[in-house]
Amino acid sequence: MKVVGLVVEYNPLHNGHLYHFEQAKKASGSDAAIAVMSGNFLQRGEPAVVDKRARAEMALSIGIDLVLELPTAYCTQNAEMFAFGAISTLHALGVVDYVCFGSESGDIRWLDHLAERLIDEPASFKKRLRELLDMGLPYPRAYADAAAALAGVPAVLLEQPNNILGLNYVLALKRLKSSIEPVTIQRIKAGYHQEDISDVSIASATAIRKRIFSKDSDEEVGISPFVPRSTWEVLQREGSINRFPVDWNLYFPFVLHSLLAMDSEELGQIHEMGEGIENRLQKFAKLYSSYDLFMENLKTKRYTWNRLQRLLLYLLLNLKKNEMQSFSLSEGVPYIRVLGFNEKGKQLLKQAKEVCHLPIITKIPRDPHPMLALDIRATSVYELGLRGGRARAEYAYVPVIK
Predict the structure, then answer these.
(1) How far, in Å, CA of 285 to CA of 87, rounded?
(2) C-alpha distances out from residue 17 to 21, 203, 227, 335, Å
(3) What is the chain's mean pLDDT, rounded?
(4) Omega before residue 245 within 30° of 0, cis
(5) Nearest Cα residue to 162 out of 329, 295, 333, 9
(6) What is the Cα–Cα distance from 100 to 28, expressed in whole angstroms?
(7) How far is CA 197 from CA 7, 96, 230, 246, 293, in A?
(8) Cα dihedral sign for 221, 186, 48, 232?
(9) How far is Cα of residue 190 from the mean position of the Cα atoms in its chain?
(10) What is the pLDDT of residue 219?
(11) Disulfide engineering: 400 pairs with which of 33, 219, 317, 340, CB 3.0-4.6 Å?
């Protein structure tokens, strides 16, 4: 079989994702598809609107054959590390021929050219990046401008989120010396962060989540035209047992407690905490009990909303600097966790076990790897926000089978 890999969050899975999946198989000529999916917390530092088991079920329902979990240590990081974790998972599995990602440009050539230039990050790039950061630009913008100058392409190309992720996927393939071939599909009809809806069937996940949380919107009328029927049925079921929808408001009281109970020295030990931001966090924790008001007033040019969300998530998970450093993220994932599969996916797992050098996990072992222990902790914290719903223990998790 020819196999294409996808890197996904499915928060929730919508018609645009279905289009990407279908086009990915078509463009790569693949017979099977494997998705590496974020767990219960996502790359922008937010909880998934519905848990990973439900989202794995959505993926299998549209025809994806095997769903793997991207560890929390990777899926809650910046674009570079998020992409590296996902690609290292597909690479280590040993059965993937292509990786297909959506992009605003739909052109793999300039991404491949730029990735080749950035593998070792030339001195001119590092110098320009430092200059831009010193000017106060947030890291994503500074990186985009410095990389665009290196490649001789318009900076706007690298200010588009899917292009940035695509570049990092290609960079990861090159750094791993992977034989997996990158393919890109142009994103259609809805931008990544687009909040308004301008099409009858395609909307961004951002716009869909906005409708989900709108108190003025009838849920089914609000989102049903933009998601596959299988997604809608899963969301209805999860909502009936108080497990959907999930957002930061459920967890913010726990963050406030930590900010008010810990001293600055303790806060300084949290991953990515620095530059005195812990003092600003504690100050604003005394002023705002609303998550949105807290974030709106806290963000700055250097500390963007997404960067702050990730920082609050690390605090929520009590993820400390020494713990993150112990994971050696630059070496790639240390295990592969299976979230779900169908019959074809079962065959792929059998093939992978013959060539993959990593443990392939369908049931949590007695003595889990420290990175897997963080995944378990993340699920426990996610469940803490759903005390009104039916709890799902991580140790009891078995893969979804279609």
Answers:
(1) 38
(2) 6, 10, 9, 26
(3) 92
(4) yes
(5) 9
(6) 8
(7) 24, 35, 21, 22, 25
(8) positive
(9) 19
(10) 47
(11) 340
Of the candidates 242, 333, 255, 337, which has an alpha carbon nearest to the alpha carbon of residue 288? 255
The token duo for 169 is: 């996927």
Report the length, in residues, of the chain.
402
Distance separating alpha carbons of residues 398 and 394, to the nearest angstrom: 9
Task: Name the helix (H) or strand (E) containing 35.
Answer: strand 32-38
Q: Residue 177, exposed/middle/buried by CB under 10 A (0-12, 13-18, 19+)?
A: exposed
Q: Which CATH class is domain 3-105+160-240?
A: alpha beta
Omega of the bond leading into 12 within 30 degrees of 0 (cis) = yes
Three-class SS of 166-217: HHHHHHHHHHCCCCCEEEEEECCCCCCCCCCCCCCCCCCHHHHHHHHCCCCC
Mean pLDDT of 260-266: 94
Q: What are phi and psi of 3, to 5 degrees?
A: -125, 130
116-125, 195-204, 246-255: which is most confident: 246-255
Q: What is the pLDDT of residues 29-84, one digit of tens each?
A: 999 999 999 999 999 999 999 999 999 999 999 999 999 999 999 999 999 999 99
Residue 182 has pLDDT above 80, yes or no: yes
DSSP 235-271: HHHHHHTT-----GGGTHHHHHHHHHHS-HHHHTTBT
* Separation CA 207–CA 306 (nearest Å): 17
The SS3 assignment for 311 reads helix
Question: What gap in Å lies between CA 101 and CA 182, rounded to an integer?
Answer: 8
Residue ranges covered by each domain of the chain: 3-105+160-240, 251-325
Residues with Cβ within 8 Å of residue 221, at least 6 apart in sequence = none
Say if CB 198 and CB 189 are below 8 A apart: yes
Confidence of residue 152 (pLDDT cuts 50, 70, 90): confident
DSSP assignment letter at 153: S
CA distances from 387 to 107, 243, 250, 251 (A): 46, 9, 10, 11
